[in-house]
Amino acid sequence: MSVSKILYTATATVSGGRDGHAKSSDGVIDIDLRTPKELGGAGAVGSNPEQLFAAGYAACFESATRHVAREKKIALKDASVTAHVGIGPREPTGFGLKVKLDVHLEGVDKATAQELVDTAHRDICPYSHATRGNVDVEIALV
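Structure (tokenized):
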């Protein structure tokens, strides 16, 4: 399915790639980027695309899960999502991502929590829609 109406557009510019600088159009994000040692970098202080993707996916998925809970009139005492984004070589060429989302939902039983995250992943979260069929995504209730 395609997007029928754009409600918001985020804009960021990077110069220098993985060892460069990223800045959002509104200046809220203004961060140095550095290649991690594991990918051949010097290990200098700075963020990287995988960290930024992890933060975005975690925030989006938690919001999607809370949205589903509100629609179903299920009260959550607390919620958090930790996203682990791995990068590595893929066949036959290039690199790919693998994601694990650790979801903590307080105040609901395991079956209800599973229903909430399944619905959020299947129906609501745009990151889940964007990765489906392209990125292995594992979701674990913790």
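The first helix runs from residue 49 to 71. The chain is about 30% helix and 30% strand.
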